[in-house]
């Protein structure tokens, strides 16, 4: 499964093949996304994980035409949503998809919410844009959405302004706006970054309930706790490419690409190699393995040509790494011997908030959730 598909017989809600985004800068072209392929199944949560600058956000924004062009140039062999191509569509055509069938939750709710409009206006606007309903019907729907995402006294707070809500509640409001069009796919970019761990746990519980209702999710994060708590499958990105993919349990139990191991080591404070600065600067190799300059296992075969092919790292082809050492002529033993898990052998969903494992279920937050 070299394309990162789900393996299910049912067609995926989102299918991406060889997505590439390059951005013109003063120093030349930055290859922000370089040959990314993956699927998101129906009712599935897929997490894109990696350090800042690895290409996660640009990948998501490229799918629905949110990357400014120019200075960016976006191409792909295929980007299909619900079986229909969306790559190359005009801005007007993409607007008919964005908000109604594909919704975005952006990283910073303080900047995503307009401070001069009430929360009610911002929640009802996408409802009235995409559906032929009256103002009163849209308002009733907005109240229901705010209740669904956990805003107390939703009918009263609908007339409040964003600054009157805590950071956790602002993020919930941003999620309510995204859900207003009843989307089939929710793309959430670092939705838990700006909140504390207890609010984070409540937001993750909300995401699980949304996916449980049938919505698919593409979740962007650099937090391994979020990955373990929310994902069905994980895609590990470095330098604009996917270097490892698989079911979340498999990747956490046996991180197999040297970059994934470095990411896990740095997360657990075990002194792994520094991996963020080089990826963010954009001065990575544009051929061969992007991680080879930092990799303790790099060999001559890692340089030149295309990014190494994906090879299965266990009995099922679902868990695979883009690494020559897993190929027919390679020896993955030295890499696998160094593998460590951020959950110390536990099931990823069992660790508590604030530990090296992922957050558990929702807990109360007196200040963040009661304001």
Describe the structure.
With 371 residues, the chain is α/β, with parallel strands linked by helices. The protein has two domains: 41-70 and 90-98 and 186-371, P-loop containing nucleotide triphosphate hydrolases (Rossmann fold, 3-Layer(aba) Sandwich), CATH 3.40.50; 102-182, no CATH class. Helices cover 31% and strands 20% of the residues. It contains 14 helices and 13 strands. Strand 5 and strand 6 (84-85) form a beta hairpin. The radius of gyration is 21 Å and the shape is globular. Mean pLDDT is 83; it is low at 269-274 and 351-371.
CATH class of the largest domain: Alpha Beta
Largest sheet: 8 strands, mixed
How many structurally independent domains? 2
> In total, how many beta strands?
13
Which residues sit in consecutive blocks of at least 5 with pLDDT less than 50? 269-274, 351-371
How confident is the prediction overall: mean pLDDT?
83
Percentage of helical residues? 25-40%
Count of discrete alpha- or pi-helical segments spanning 4 or more residues: 14
How far apart are the termini? 48 Å
CATH architecture of the largest domain: 3-Layer(aba) Sandwich
What string, H for helix and E for strand, traces the elements in order? EEEHEEEHEHHHHHEHEHEEHHHEEHH
Q: Strand portion, in percent?
A: 15-25%
Structural class designation: alpha/beta
According to CATH, the fold-level topology of the largest domain is: Rossmann fold
Q: What is the C-alpha radius of gyration, as a whole number of Å?
A: 21 Å
* CATH superfamily label of the largest domain: P-loop containing nucleotide triphosphate hydrolases
Molecular shape: globular
- Main-sheet strand order equals 7-8-9-3-10-11-13-12
